[in-house]
């Protein structure tokens, strides 16, 4: 955190809140850092470079995968027919109940069996085995939420709180140069730190878009500082990861199977718009 301590100008480009977090971070205190990434991060050359805040309690990460049911029965039956020996008729591939149920299933598929085929199967006490299996489809795009309470203890910290709220809100929005096209908003890099190094005990997050900002000014009172600044701001942030991840996006390939380790180099993060 030495870089942070160098910034002592009134309009510093690196903000920590509270300001006491600077010294705490130098002594290894855990904290969270938000910065912009990608080509559009250059927009902030004259503004904020990054913001360091305390880690809010109860941070939650939800990963999920999507599966669909896939009926393999007809596919396996068709494969058996294709692989039959030369000269063997399709009707000879199956025998016994399998032959009867495949006949009924075939009639059903071409719309010829109707209720007659179903009744025949019912009387014989047989049914087609769909051989249903789960087929992987995709993983969910991850979302992350943070809630911060900014309670300034000085006019300087009150100004820091104002700039923090405005910075997040500003870069949720896209830009427009004409009335017909929008330029994507920049993506955010979210990092958990232990001192100056990323905290290996906390999750690794890829580049995100800021999807929601909620700010509550003076949540517990109607008190203001003498210059009109609120005495507290609650900020809620919702982020959506910019791409669907695979295992190689998250974990080092050199790690052993029984000791997965996050790859904090963020391989494959989108660095464009």
Q: Mean of residue pLDDT?
A: 83
Structural class determined from secondary elements:
alpha+beta
Instruction: Give the overall silhouette.
Output: elongated
The fraction of residues assigned to DSSP E strands is 15-25%
Show unreliable segments.
Answer: 1-9
End-to-end Cα distance: 28 Å
Number of strands: 10
> How would you write the strand order of the largest sheet?
1-3-2-7-8
Rg over CA atoms? 30 Å
Fraction of residues in helix: 10-25%
Structure characterization notes:
With 273 residues, the protein is α+β, with helices and mostly antiparallel strands. It folds into 2 domains: 17-57 and 138-250, no CATH class; 71-133, no CATH class. It has 7 helices and 10 strands. It has helices at 2-6, 21-26, 73-82, 96-109, 114-124, 155-170, 247-250, and strands at 14-17, 30-37, 50-53, 65-71, 132-139, 143-150, 187-194, 197-198, 208-217, 233-241. A hairpin with a 2-residue loop joins strand 7 and strand 8. The chain is elongated. The two termini are 28 Å apart.
């Amino acid at each position: 955190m030495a870089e942070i301590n160098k910034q002592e100008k009134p309009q510093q480009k690196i903000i920590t809140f509270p300001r006491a977090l600077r010294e705490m971070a130098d002594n290894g205190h855990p904290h969270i850092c938000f910065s912009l990434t990608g080509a559009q991060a250059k927009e902030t050359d004259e503004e904020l470079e990054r913001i360091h805040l305390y880690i809010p309690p109860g941070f939650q990460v939800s990963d999920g995968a999507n599966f669909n049911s896939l009926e393999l029965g007809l596919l396996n039956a068709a494969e058996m027919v294709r692989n039959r020996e030369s000269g063997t008729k399709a009707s000879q591939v199956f025998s016994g109940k399998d032959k009867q149920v495949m006949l009924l299933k075939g009639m059903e598929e071409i719309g010829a069996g109707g209720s007659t085929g179903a009744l025949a199967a019912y009387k014989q006490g047989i049914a087609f085995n769909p051989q249903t299996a789960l087929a992987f489809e995709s993983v969910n795009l991850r979302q992350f939420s943070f809630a911060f309470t900014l309670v300034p203890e000085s006019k300087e910290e009150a100004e820091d709180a104002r700039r923090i709220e405005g910075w997040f809100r500003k870069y949720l929005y896209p830009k427009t140069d004409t009335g017909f096209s929008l330029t994507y908003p920049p993506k955010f890099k979210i990092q958990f730190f232990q001192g100056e190094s990323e905290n290996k005990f906390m999750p690794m997050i890829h580049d995100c878009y800021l999807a929601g900002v909620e700010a509550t000014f003076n949540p517990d009172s109607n008190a203001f500082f003498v210059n009109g600044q609120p005495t507290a701001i609650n900020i809620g942030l919702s982020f959506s990861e910019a791409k669907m991840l695979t295992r190689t996006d998250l974990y080092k390939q050199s790690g052993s199977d029984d000791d997965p380790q996050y790859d904090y180099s963020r391989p494959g993060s989108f660095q464009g718009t």
